[in-house]
Design goal:
Layout lengths: L1 H7 L4 E4 L5 H10 L3 E5 L11 H17 L2 E4 L2 H9 L7 E3 L24 E5 L8 H11 L6 E5 L5 H7 L4 E5 L3 H10 L2 E4 L13 H8 L4 E4 L14 E3 L4 H12 L3 H18 L2 H15 L2
Parallel strand pairs: 1-2, 2-3, 3-4, 5-6, 5-8, 6-7, 8-9, 9-10
Helix pairs in contact: 1-2, 2-3, 5-9
């Protein structure tokens, strides 16, 4: 990697993830070109776990923090984590990744059938970190009073147990390409992503929340890490208490929306993502950063 990067003669080296940054740090030093490093999550923490993996992460993180002309964090939450781990505040800024709002779009005409049961959608790893166990419990407690379908897109370590206990209203869609994910998003009443702190780590951002909202779908999420920064204020729902009971209350509220309120919230979500978290805006910010570090 070091030889290849050096041979390309770049004007800027942009390293994604500090964890494997040593070749980029060395190449930037030896070729004397600016290094930009984007921090995505675990690579920003002072200490994450134990053993050789944690030591390797710490070594790379220190090298990236010392060698980067600019450090970018994918949320203000993660920027604070990086500051606690020793990042230089003068070289650190927030760069939201953004989603392609020209591709993640609402269905035309609307794909939601007013005669079918509303779909509660989950997209992500079927793991405790993503909170799918809390969602399954909340949905099971609620379905008798608020009929709905729960659709789980993805796979992961909790899948076997969830399938074994799943009520009839739960659909396991498995892993899907982005066309398949978008198709389910366009049919969903709401997307739920109840990510929880796990082993001292919290969700840094959560692009699936932006993708759903860009499709005109309100979301429900736990207030964890950088998740609040991915939620359209006043249109989607942020659950402060991280528990199945609290999640059930938020889903109950969403299922009580009238069709008009659901449509208004979806339109507000779409407008917010397009203005505040689009790939277009993210790219323009990155152009400005590259211009700044190459002056």
């Amino acid at each position: 990697m070091y030889r290849a990067i050096s041979a390309w003669g770049p004007d800027v080296i942009h390293q994604q993830q500090a964890t494997w940054s040593l070749p980029a740090v060395r190449a930037a030093r030896d070729t004397r070109v600016p290094l930009v490093v984007t921090l995505h999550g675990g690579d920003a923490y002072r200490r994450l776990g134990r053993g050789a993996g944690a030591a390797w992460n710490a070594r790379n993180r220190r090298a990236a923090f010392d060698g980067a002309s600019r450090l970018l964090a994918v949320s203000h939450y993660l920027a604070d984590v990086a500051l606690d781990a020793g990042a230089d505040p003068q070289r650190l800024s927030v760069h939201y990744q953004g989603v392609d709002t020209r591709w993640w779009t609402p269905a035309t005409p609307p794909a939601i059938d007013s005669y079918e049961e509303p779909i509660i959608l989950f997209v992500g790893a079927l793991s405790r970190l993503k909170g799918v166990d809390d969602l399954a419990r909340a949905s099971a407690a609620l379905v008798g009073r608020r009929p709905h379908r729960l659709v789980l897109v993805g796979d992961g370590p909790l899948e076997a147990g969830l399938r074994e206990r799943a009520p009839a209203h739960v659909t396991f869609a498995g892993r899907l390409d982005r066309e398949g994910v978008r198709a389910w998003m366009r049919r969903a009443h709401v997307l739920v992503l109840p990510t929880k702190p796990t082993h001292g780590r919290q969700e840094a951002a959560g692009l699936v929340l932006l993708e759903a909202q860009a499709c005109g779908v309100p979301v429900i999420a736990y207030s964890t890490g950088g998740t609040p920064e991915m939620i359209a204020p006043g249109a989607s729902l942020l659950t402060q208490e991280r528990s199945p009971d609290a999640l059930a209350r938020s889903i109950d509220e969403a299922l009580a929306w009238s069709e008009d309120e659901r449509a208004d919230r979806g339109a507000a979500c779409r407008a917010w993502v397009d203005k505040e978290r689009s790939l277009r805006a993210s790219t323009e910010q990155l152009r400005t950063i590259y211009a700044d570090v190459t002056r």
